[in-house]
Write a sequence for this structure.
């Protein structure tokens, strides 16, 4: 059992200070009547002292005016809710009652955001921080202190750890009463929690670049409840900024966000913070160590208890406590099942699918001996309790002006990794949200950008980091729009038909199953779909029985066959082999004396193809972690991802043809065709990024050292890299892949009821796809991997490797193909060539950013000189249009200037 005395960073009171405090409190306690007893009128201060109270005739010392008032006096006429920390309320005043034995005793403090403003990452029904805390009393001051659980001294050295790493003060306030004469407890003014404990002002500043601050005078407690293990306060917090600054007269170099759009007055907004004070389990749950061959969320810390360990990091599996009622039975009900409450806001038509997604996990638990391990209950529509308190795991349904995601976080005991609460946030993305987007651009939307900015803050406040954030629902809804449009065009599904409703219901079940998996402790698995063959995907019997992927924790694409091919199930409908395996490792009951060996045996199955695993970082999260394994992807399908990306272009072209043939409907949605086009280009932008992973790619395996003899990294086969380069050149970078009829584009009207009225631009949509390819192939990461790749390959196999020079040469030939053929360069191609020049300019004048090797810079310059020569030759050709000649002249001048410029060296 872990001792947390070492985690308390502040020194205890000295004995003399404690003794003085006890004398003072004892004196107060003897004059304080019990809260339930009648109040007795105090004697007059002017009355003479009796010989009993003033021996030897000495005068009685005057009362200390700073001493807390008697408990009964403070709590007179207040109503109390008994619980872990009883909650007293009188008019607008709220107190917590804290007993002496709870001072210095750790408990769990969590914050949830029940109400919000519905835009830019600021949504209702979201879990926030969870921290191990304790009350501390310093004189007449009460502090709520967050203990530093990231650094521990399990085997010794606790004092050194406590001196090295500080705790944090979350809230503080004066003691509100003298000790209760019997319970030895004091009242504390809960007003200390009418502050910005979650740090929301920073989130607001990140979203709006405005200095919002909490306004305590207009904040209050709107709800409270307590029981033996939990006390909860819900604070209605007002945030404001004194003024909205006027727009600048001159546009700034970087775009600035607008003030809030979803509030009546952008200067003022309300949030509801649900503060939970939760008792820790009396008996800590047994710890189960993480194994990197599987993907579980973990509780991690650095253990400085011994200097004999090379790595001080310790990682524990996050999981619920699940114990059999009958330990000897092969199949038994659990002592306490994992219960999820369906929020009363969930539309009735979706509740059955949500429940089915929750209960799907019972299949995995039955395999390891638990019957009905998961329960699903519906919150009554007239319920007066909020399932954001930490005693109810829940599925929360929320809406927002720009929202489209689901998230599955959890709160737990940092001592052991035991999950104690989970609240899945599910937006209405599958109702109105499935066809609604903030903007129709193809870059990072305002939603994703601001969600990411908020994520950095969450990473600081959460121990779980970025993995808590899950965009599966948002991405799946965009994919769903594409799939339904295509199937409708084929006549396989008609709008508002039972088949269309069944499709949507299946998607809801899939996403809920995915998010429940997160709350059970499972991370994403972005390799799961690559162990299902194309033949199996087209087999309806196979996909109905086993699904279209080996895990619901992947971001699974929709299974759409090309026209004329056999069609399997469209969506994933059941747990996969990986899901059963991950649940077995985390939850299977094991004897303590054999647990280490048993877990090693379970994890050793990682070499089975169906159990392939890769997490978010493996798939790519940006920056240096761009994802280099082409088998670790979001939204691919089948054992040949490159073939899937090629099919995606063919499916998009089929959809475009059908949309252009579709007849307009009187009174129909004016943006319907536009949305279909945009959704298809979203898929292609993702395919472009993932196709580029093959070039300079490496296959990665998570084998432990010495466990299999397989290499941890191996270069993607040169033939596959060249196949990807060919698809990029002839498919994604070719203007012929993106042709639309002028009469169709001219017929696309606008929604004149809205402010934003921007015409559909195919060149802009194509540009977003093509620049994604350019950024990937010309990145410092790709260059470094191509340069380093020979070091990973046996000398006899190096001859056929793809070189950086080959990649740059192929790219030049594809982007500037007209220079050799003498053909006209149309507007779409000119845009691509300008983007290519911008990236050459960035490398040649600024060094290409951090991480670009000198050999890569030299290679870029070498091919830029070759391009300069080709541009000179092409510029002299006769018969070209004025637009093409002007473009060639400008391109040559730009590149020549760049080659003459001095690189800015840091």
């Amino acid at each position: 059992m872990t001792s947390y005395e070492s985690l308390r960073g502040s020194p205890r009171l000295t004995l003399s200070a404690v003794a003085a405090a006890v004398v003072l409190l004892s004196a107060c306690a003897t004059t304080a009547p019990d809260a339930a007893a009648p109040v007795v009128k105090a004697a007059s201060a002017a009355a003479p002292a009796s010989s009993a109270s003033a021996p030897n005739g000495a005068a009685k010392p005057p009362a200390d005016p700073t001493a807390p008032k008697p408990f009964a006096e403070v709590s007179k006429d207040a109503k109390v809710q008994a619980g872990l920390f009883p909650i007293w309320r009188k008019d607008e005043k709220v107190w917590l009652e804290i007993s002496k034995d709870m001072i210095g005793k750790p408990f769990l403090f969590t914050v949830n955001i029940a109400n919000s403003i519905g835009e830019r990452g600021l949504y209702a029904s979201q879990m926030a921080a969870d921290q191990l805390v304790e009350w501390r009393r310093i004189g007449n001051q009460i502090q709520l202190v967050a203990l530093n659980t990231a650094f521990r001294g399990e085997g010794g050295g606790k004092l050194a750890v406590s001196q090295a790493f500080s705790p944090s003060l979350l809230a503080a306030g004066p003691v509100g009463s003298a000790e209760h004469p019997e319970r030895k407890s004091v009242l504390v003014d809960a007003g200390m929690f009418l502050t910005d404990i979650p740090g929301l002002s920073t989130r607001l500043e990140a979203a709006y670049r405005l200095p919002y601050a909490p306004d305590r005078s207009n904040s209050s407690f709107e709800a409270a409840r307590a029981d033996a293990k939990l006390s909860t306060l819900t604070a209605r917090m007002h945030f404001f900024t004194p003024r909205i600054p006027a727009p600048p007269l001159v546009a700034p170099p970087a775009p600035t966000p607008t003030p809030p759009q979803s509030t009546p007055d952008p200067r003022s907004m309300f949030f509801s913070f649900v503060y939970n004070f939760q008792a820790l389990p009396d008996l800590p749950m047994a710890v189960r160590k993480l194994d990197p061959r599987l993907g579980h969320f973990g509780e991690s810390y650095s253990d400085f208890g011994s200097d004999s360990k090379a790595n001080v990091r310790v990682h524990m599996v996050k999981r619920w406590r699940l114990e059999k009622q009958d330990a000897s039975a092969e199949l038994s009900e659990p002592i306490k099942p994992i219960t999820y409450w369906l929020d009363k806001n969930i539309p009735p038509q979706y509740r059955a699918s949500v429940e089915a997604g929750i209960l799907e996990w019972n299949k995995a638990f039955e395999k390891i001996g638990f019957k009905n391990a998961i329960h699903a209950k519906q919150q009554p529509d007239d319920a007066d309790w909020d399932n954001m308190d930490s005693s109810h795991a829940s599925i929360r349904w929320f809406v927002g002006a720009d929202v489209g995601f689901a998230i599955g976080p959890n709160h737990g005991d940092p001592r052991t990794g035991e999950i104690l609460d989970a609240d899945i946030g599910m937006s209405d993305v599958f109702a109105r949200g499935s066809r609604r987007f903030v903007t129709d651009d193809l870059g990072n939307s305002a939603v994703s950008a601001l969600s990411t900015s908020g994520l950095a803050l969450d990473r600081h406040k959460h121990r779980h980091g970025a993995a808590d954030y899950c965009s599966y629902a948002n991405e799946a809804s965009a994919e769903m729009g594409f799939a339904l449009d295509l199937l409708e065009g084929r006549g396989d599904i008609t709008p508002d038909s039972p088949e269309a409703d069944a499709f949507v219901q299946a998607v809801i079940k899939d996403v809920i199953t995915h998010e429940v998996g997160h709350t059970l402790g499972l991370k994403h698995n972005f390799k799961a779909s690559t162990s299902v063959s194309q033949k199996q995907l087209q087999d309806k019997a196979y996909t109905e029985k086993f699904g279209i992927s080996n895990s619901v924790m992947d971001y699974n694409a929709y299974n759409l066959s090309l026209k004329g091919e056999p069609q399997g199930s469209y969506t994933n409908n059941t747990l996969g082999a990986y899901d059963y395996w991950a649940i077995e490792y985390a939850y299977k009951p094991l004897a303590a004396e054999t647990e280490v060996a048993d877990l090693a045996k379970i994890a050793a199955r990682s070499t089975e193809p169906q159990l392939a695993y890769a997490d978010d970082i493996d798939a790519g999260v940006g920056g240096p972690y761009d994802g280099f394994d082409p088998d670790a992807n979001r939204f691919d399908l089948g054992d040949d991802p490159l073939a899937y990306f090629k099919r995606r272009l063919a499916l998009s072209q089929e959809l475009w043809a059908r949309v252009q043939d579709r007849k307009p409907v009187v009174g129909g949605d004016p943006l319907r065709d536009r949305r279909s086009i945009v959704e298809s280009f979203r898929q292609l932008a993702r395919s472009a990024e993932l196709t580029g992973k093959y070039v300079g790619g490496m296959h990665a395996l998570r084998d432990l050292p010495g466990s299999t003899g397989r290499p941890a990294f191996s270069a993607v086969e040169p033939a596959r890299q060249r196949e990807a380069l060919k698809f990029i050149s002839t498919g994604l970078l070719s203007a012929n892949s993106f042709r639309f009829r002028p009469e169709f584009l001219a017929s696309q009207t606008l929604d004149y009821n809205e402010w934003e009225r921007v015409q559909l631009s195919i060149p802009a949509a194509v540009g977003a796809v093509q620049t994604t390819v350019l950024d990937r192939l010309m990145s410092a990461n790709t260059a470094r991997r191509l340069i380093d790749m020979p070091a990973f390959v046996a000398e006899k196999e190096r001859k056929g490797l793809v070189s950086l020079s080959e990649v740059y040469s192929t790219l030049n030939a594809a982007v500037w193909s007209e220079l050799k053929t003498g053909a006209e360069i149309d507007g779409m191609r000119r845009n691509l060539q300008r983007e290519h020049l911008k990236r050459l300019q960035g490398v040649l004048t600024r060094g290409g950013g951090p991480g670009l090797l000198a050999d890569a810079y030299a290679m870029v310059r070498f091919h830029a000189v070759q391009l300069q020569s080709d541009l000179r030759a092409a510029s002299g050709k006769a018969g070209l249009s004025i637009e093409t000649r002007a473009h060639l002249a400008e391109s040559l001048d730009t590149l020549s200037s760049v080659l003459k410029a001095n690189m800015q060296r840091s």
Q: What stands out?
A: The longest strand covers residues 213-227. The two ends are 53 Å apart (CA to CA). Residues 5-36+69-245 form one domain. Confidence is low (pLDDT under 50) at residues 1-55, 431-467.
